[in-house]
Amino acid sequence: MMKAFSSLFSLSYIPLRPAAVILVSLLILQITLKTFHLLWHKPKKTERFFFEQGLLGPPYRFLLGNLTEIVSLMLAASSKPITAPFSHNILPRVLSFYNLWNKTYGSTFLFWFGPTPRLAVADPELIREIFITKAKFFDRYESHPLIRQLEGDGLVNLSGHQWALHRKLISPVFHMDNLKMLMPSVGETMVGILEKVAATAAAKGEEGGVELDVAELYHSMTEEAVTRTTFGRSYDEGKAVFQLQTKLMAFAAEAFNRVFIPGYRFLPTVRNRIRWKLDREIKEKLLKLVSCRKEEAAAGEAKDLLGQMTSPAAAGITNSDIVEECKTFFFAGKQTTTNLLTWATVLLAMHPEWQDRAREELRRVCGARDLPSKDDLPNLKTLGMIVNETLRLYPPVVATIRRAKADVELGGYRVPRGTEILVPIIAVHHDAGLWGPDAERFNPARFAYGASRSARHPNAFMPFGLGERTCIGRGLAVLEAKMALAAVLRRFMIRVSRNYVHAPTVLMMLYPQYGAPVIFSSICEDR
Ligand code: HEM
């Protein structure tokens, strides 16, 4: 056997030990050459390929690409708040590496995420190609494993036939007529929260108002909305599941902030064991819910995710598909809308003239009604413009990534398979070339004639993405935002606290780094 082994390599005349040494050396040489090829030769060749087409960028560095520069630029940016009081020029702080390289190399440039080439694309014409006309050449980017475990293998992470099937089944949940049925419960939750605020202010007897961190204020309302959308009449059981999911998210956020060690999440550490237990509990509870709902089909009630996915139309959908989809809804639907509401409140607190205009509109449209009715909502144009301007200046999802799954031509450039494309939504939203010289000003009036006519390009506004993979929950998010802001503005005058430090930053989404303290003063008037 040994003989056969050595003769296989024509080394039979060499004594066995030296032969083994040579074999191992050859193997090491081969691995070294392959590593050198993958981590140096190939990236450098790709870099030349792009540079020859005029697509420049920071030079590739062995193994890490530009990661070191990205991390140090981001750390430096997040170490100091924005000095100009309430400036909305937040791009240099939020995506500092993009801001720097965009100035040096232009709006389409190449940089390196480790040994993988990433093309930053902020030209709406090219973005249109990526999301709409040439979407079939691009895949969604696979999330970090910890995030993926949380966000579930639902719509956000699916592709091809499975994605199309899920999207078709789920879409009716978000039809406006269906969403409007949610309004009373969402409104009630918000009113409940605000009554507590008013009671606290009254108990403290603070004439100047009560200070609240608005980043915390909206959680229960957005949770209410996403729980009803997902579970409908199985609300109470669903709520228990989402409470576990919140705990799990806290663990993941903590792990995400640490250095990523591949494979670490599989080790039976105390924290990992707690995470696994929570994950198991969530799955078990969801599976129980799914089988209950499969047994009892009901008619004449609002459509919810669970109902749609257990309906007879859902042939081919497994229980585990449903579990993953519920997780996705929670992940994609809660924090995004909470962030939108946080920034909208901060912006209104910074710009009292827009509070007045929105309040005036609420009085005119809703009259004596405490909360907007479903017919009032489309008439709350000023509030809609404020929501849009918030999403433009402070988009909760600051960027999105695609991966070219074939060689493809993009705006005349040749892009090789495997290239990742970074679409910096926030940079497009702050581009003076698209939005005019007042791009950094909070001016909701720019949306007076609709989102597609607000900028020099109809696709310049894209807080919910574009094309077929656009956010399925956008209608719900806007409805929640209008409802919550209406409830706040009818009861309170708001102003920014002296303790507020203007420091937007990214941790998966766009956050106020030091919280968002805002002063709420009750309005005493007859409505
Ligand atoms: C202000 C609130 C929200 C923002 C800013 C937002 C933003 C986005 C964006 C940018 C995308 C596309 C990502 C990409 O193309 O890579 C997306 C997709 C998605 N969003 Fe939202 N979202 C919000 C609220 C919601 C809500 C309330 C839900 C559900 C309850 C939701 C569920 C989803 C799902 C399932 C997808 C994936 C759609 C698909 O791939 O077919 N989102 N969202």
TrEMBL record:
Its main location: membrane. Heme binds at residue 471. Keywords: Heme, Iron, Membrane, Metal-binding, Monooxygenase, Oxidoreductase, Transmembrane, Transmembrane helix. It is a single-pass membrane protein. It comes from the Eukaryota. GO terms for biological process: brassinosteroid homeostasis; brassinosteroid metabolic process. Its cofactor is heme. PROSITE patterns: CYTOCHROME_P450. The keyword Iron-sulfur does not apply. It is found in: Membrane. One of its GO terms (cellular component) is membrane. One of its GO terms (molecular function) is monooxygenase activity. The keyword Hydrolase does not apply. Belongs to the cytochrome P450 family. This is Cytochrome P450. It comes from Dendrobium chrysotoxum (Orchid).
